[in-house]
Amino acid sequence: MSSHHDASDFVDSDFQSAQQATYMAPQPVVAPLPTNASSRPPTREEIEAMVSEKQIKLAELKRAQEELERERAGLEELRRKQAEFQTGRNEMLQQLTRGIGLLEEAELCSRRDAEQMARTLAEFREAVGKVQGINEQLWSQENFSVELTRALTTIENARMEWNTARLKFTILSGQMPTEPESPANKAANSLLGTTDLVQLAKIGLALTWPLVLLGGAIFLALFLRH
Predict the structure, then answer these.
(1) Nearest Cα to Cα of residue 210 among 161, 134, 152, 164
(2) Contact 222, 141 (CB under 8 A)
(3) Is there a contact between 148 and 215 (Cβ–Cβ < 8 Å)?
(4) Residue 194 burial (CB < 10 Å; 0-12/13-18/19+)?
(5) Residue 141 and residue 54: Cα distance in Å, rounded?
(6) What secondary structure, in 3-state letters, does 143-159 show?
(7) Which burial class, exposed, middle or buried, applies to 164 when counting CB atoms under 10 A from its CB (0-12, 13-18, 19+)?
(8) How far apart are CA 136 and CA 151, in angstroms?
(9) How much is the pLDDT for 222?
(10) Cα–Cα distance between 91 and 85 in angstroms, integer?
């Protein structure tokens, strides 16, 4: 039997495997023990830092509030202007529409009055020419009665035109168009306004018949004198 032994015969393979496994196993990480910070009171620096932080937040909130107030004021101004616009537009549309109607009616009345005034002016000028055309120097004993009657008729026609015009234009009575008529003129105009031209002629004749009688008496006196 041989006494020669290999070096591997003296090595315990199981021990080496266990030792190698132990060597290769990961080592556990030990975390540091946490320190309990809440258990201590804050320092002065920490308090001042927190106060500064709160002041900054308050300043930011104040700026935000001021900005919101400006925006709200702007919106209120826009709302006020919009309401003023709506009210003003409706008011002006109503007033202008009413004004157009009133002015159109007034223009139509003024146009009619102007046309009537133009006709009355022409009649007045014609009447003035007729009255001024009466020349007593041309009368003679033979035509005295006829010319006097003709002259009285011309004057009466002019008076009728005058009275008719006074009913249309109050300015001929010494009154402005906007002034109210006096009770006497109002009663006279009311009476004359309810009569037609024939009745007005009768009224004028009734008012002037004394002049006709006076003219006849003068004519008779002159005739008898000769």
Answers:
(1) 152
(2) yes
(3) yes
(4) exposed
(5) 129
(6) CHHHHHHHHHHHHHHHH
(7) middle
(8) 9
(9) 62
(10) 10
R_g over Cα of the chain: 63
User: Token pair for residue 106?
Assistant: 């007034």
Q: Is the overall model pTM greater than 0.70, yes or no?
A: no
Rounded distance, CA 186 to CA 167, Å?
Answer: 10
Six-digit token string for 218:
């003068």
Nearest to 148 by CA among 130, 136, 163, 132: 136
Tokens 């009311």 sit at which residue?
A: 190
Mean pLDDT of 64-83: 94
The CA distances from residue 3 to 6, 9, in Å, are 10, 13
Distance (Å, rounded) from C-alpha 104 to C-alpha 112?
A: 12
Location of structure tokens 């001021």: 66
Distance CA 163, CA 176 (A): 17
| Cβ contact 122:174 at 8 Å | no
Look up residue 88 and give its two tokens: 């003003």
Token digits for 156? Answer: 């009466």
d(CA 4, CA 12): 18
Element (H, E) at 32: none
How many C-beta neighbours within 10 Å does residue 161 have?
15
pLDDT, one tens digit per residue, over 152-204 is 999 999 999 899 888 888 888 876 555 444 444 555 555 444 445 556 566 56
